[in-house]
Amino acid sequence: MSKIYRHFLFFFFLLNSFSIFSQDSTRFDWKVSSRKTAEGSYTLSFTTDPPNGWLLYAPMQVSELQTTELQLEDSSVMVDQIREITPARTISNSLFDSARVYQSPVEWKADVRFPSGEAPAILKGKLLFTYGKEPDVFYPSTPFDFTINLEGGTATKARIHIPTIDISSPVSECGDKVKKDSSLFAIFLLGLFGGFIALLTPCVFPMIPLTVSFFTQKTEVRGRGVANAMLYGFFIFLIYVLLTIPFHIAGKTNPEIFNNLSTDVLLNIIFFVIFLVFAISFFGYFELTLPSTIANRAGSRSGIGNIAGIFFMAITLAIVSFSCTGPILGTLLAGVAEEGPWPLTIGAAGFGLALGLPFAVFAMFPRWLQTIPKSGGWLTDVKVVLGFIELALAIKFLANADNVKQWGLLKREIFVGLWALISLAIVLYLTGALRIGPKYGKVKFSTTRTVFIVFFSIVTLYLAPGVTNSAWAKLKWISGFPPPLCYSIYTHPVNCDEPLLDYEQAIQLARKENKPVLIDFTGWACVNCRRMEEKVWTKPQVEKLMKNEFVLVSLYVDERTKLKPGEQHIYITKSGSEKSIITIGDKWTAFQIDNFDATSQPQYAIISPDEKALVRTKFYTPNADEFAAWLQCGLDAFQRESNTK
After folding, report:
1. Final residue belonging to a domain, choices 393, 410, 427
2. Do 351 and 285 lie in a common domain?
3. pLDDT of residue 290
4. Alpha carbon distance 518, 531 (integer Å)
5. Is the separation of the CB atoms in 91 and 132 below 8 Å?
6. Most CB atoms within 10 A, among 258, 341, 342, 522?
7. End-to-end CA distance of the chain
8. Domain containing residue 206
9. Are 59 and 68 in contact (CB under 8 A)?
10. Helix (H, G, I), strand (E, B), or coil: what is residue 374?
11. Percent of the chain having pLDDT more than 70?
12. Which of 55, 109, 61 is nearest to 85 (CA)?
């Protein structure tokens, strides 16, 4: 076999292997251990037993491919090449003239050295290995993530579980027993609003009279046509609800997943790119559609039976309208993802109801079809304005990532300035001064257009002071969306009042001043946290209590700054599971879960200087009087507790 042909086959199978979703490390049960060989030096041992029929490729054996690689999270650690302890056997196949593989228990070793001579308590890394199956199944660079304890590694473990904190038996019973779900109705209305907006897009609006006419004129019996149209609307609603089922499954396997969605840097950057693409699509530069084969298959089944045919017609509508509905639904789901699976379902239900309702209503009252506006250039205007809104949301997701990593790219004033420019661009577009997408001649200033021009002009004027270093920069109407007031381009921000950021410092200060501690579990990317800080904490009745009567400490659960090597460790949670404490956020997340039984933010707790729960915790509370009453209850409990000593 010629060398060129062999290389062609090799790269063909390499490309093919990356496209197969079944590639993962779960087929191999890897075990990893460490042994200290000198001060700051360790030998890592990797063992596994290849499953029956599978081949594990030996390390460092062919020039075309690095079959194994050891990657450590700490890039300063020196890593030697992986060496074989168990001998491999040699085979020949269509990819290699000669390859060394294993089909029986394997042991590999690698030496690592810490330049400082001081090793941490734990080491996190990734082993990339290659496996396959005869004759042509080949999976290169398959990751196996590991975390191990290092013998003799130093660890100054911070206190996480505080036995004296018992929120089930506080001194006073005021507070929230469970996280409030009062926002579900608001989320449903938000989904409903998003669905009605999607109806006004060019992908959906023209379909209403066509589809209703199809149902009402196809059957001789009008009642049956109306029933079919109503069933069609119901199936549209059902399809969007069913889309959220995977989130319920994921939530059962990993309860923290929804909280992590809003704080994960990579995920927020992905959302930024997606929404940027959505915006460009709405501007008319390209059409964002699902593969035509999907729509064709769904459409071909729309004639199968009565109910089944109607169901596939609904699926076909959902697919062909994706370029317009996808960005709007994606915006909704991304906005409430941190709340958990049920808010996602409720939001999607509102969206689906708004999309399906007109088909049923107009089928029952076909004369109403004559009252709706005709399709035309105004639909394009709606789509372009939505594109600008998608662009603003893209900036929000990039700001989330920037807040968490503290890159300094989108500080508060820059963020607000970009939003003000986007709002101004909408005004210019609606007045005809800025043209994007297809042109429809001279702009006609209808009442609706004039209302939107006035609205976005007011928005632009409202946002403008947000770039200044003044009291006018608070922008309370949009609190929660811009970065925190202290994340500013100015050296001394007027509105900034930073709290303590470390629990142990807060406890020491509370004991010194004999005050209760107010714990604020928050996050850089937490919208409701910013709303509380800017709309509730600033109210006189709340601000007076917080500043004068409490020691406030804000614990950022999404803080990605790594702890010192000696502070990193594997923590055994109250439930008995293992959690790697690598970053400051890891520490405060574990602290919140084990002591206050929650994973969402914001959550507020009041404890005494001797670390006893004074009241039940409080979650997002937009009512300032209610929050002030809870603070006063905690203060009264502290005073009663102090008087009994």
Report:
1. 410
2. yes
3. 44
4. 18
5. no
6. 522
7. 89
8. 200-410
9. yes
10. coil
11. 75
12. 109
Beta strands 551-556; 517-522: pairing state: parallel
Q: Is the pLDDT of residue 256 over 80?
A: no
Q: Are residues 229 and 145 in the same domain?
A: no
Chain segment 131-169, per-residue pLDDT in tens: 888 767 788 888 898 888 887 665 556 788 888 998 888
When comparing pLDDT for 475 and 307, which is higher? 475
- Domain identity same for 266 and 349: yes
| HEC letters along 375-417 | CCHHHHHHHHHHHHHHHHHHHHHHHHHHHHHCCCCCCHHHHHH
Co-location of 72 and 212 in the same domain = no
More confident residue, 619 or 370: 619
Nearest Cα neighbor of 522 from 393, 629, 404 is 404
Total domains in the fold of the chain: 2
In tens, the pLDDT along 38-97 reads 888 899 999 999 888 888 988 866 555 677 888 887 777 888 888 899 888 888 776 677
- The better pLDDT of the pair 11, 522 is held by 522
Residue 416: its pLDDT value, please? 93
- Select from 119, 149, 179 the last residue of a domain: 149
* Cα(366)–Cα(212) distance, integer angstroms: 8
In tens, the pLDDT along 342-353 reads 777 888 888 888
DSSP, res 534 = I
Tokens 């060989």 belong to 37
SS3 491: coil
In a domain, 506, yes or no: no
Q: Which of 589, 640, 593 is nearest to 617 (CA)?
A: 593
Q: Is the pLDDT of residue 371 over 70?
A: no
Tokens linked to 239:
């399809």
Residue whose entry in the numeric block shows the structure tokens 């109801």:
353
Is 130:142 a contact under the CB 8 Å cutoff? Answer: yes
Integer Cα distance of 246 and 267 in angstroms: 17
Q: What percent of the chain has pLDDT over 90?
A: 20
How far apart are alpha carbons 516 and 511 in whole angstroms? 9
Q: Do 220 and 142 belong together in one domain? A: no
The tokens of 497 are what? 């009042």
Binned at pLDDT 50, 70 and 90, residue 287 comes out as low
503 and 591 Cβ atoms separated by less than 8 Å: yes
Largest CA distance in the chain: 91
What's the CATH number where 104 sits? 2.60.40.1250
Same domain, 143 and 204: no
In a domain? residue 320: yes
- Say if residue 227 is in the same domain as residue 115: no
pLDDT at 438 over 90: no
Q: What is the DSSP letter of 413?
A: H
The CA distances from residue 510 to 141, 551, 631, in Å, are 52, 6, 16
CA neighbor of 601 nearest in space, from 346, 333, 261, 329? 261
Round to whole Å and give the CA distance between 487 and 400.
Answer: 12
Q: Rounded distance, CA 311 to CA 302, Å? A: 7
What region does 94 belong to: left with phi over 0, alpha with psi -120 to 50, or beta?
alpha
Task: Output the pLDDT for position 513.
Answer: 92
Neighbours of 492 (CB within 10 A): 7
Give pTM, 2 decimals: 0.62
Is the same domain home to 205 and 99? no
Q: Is residue 483 part of a domain?
A: no
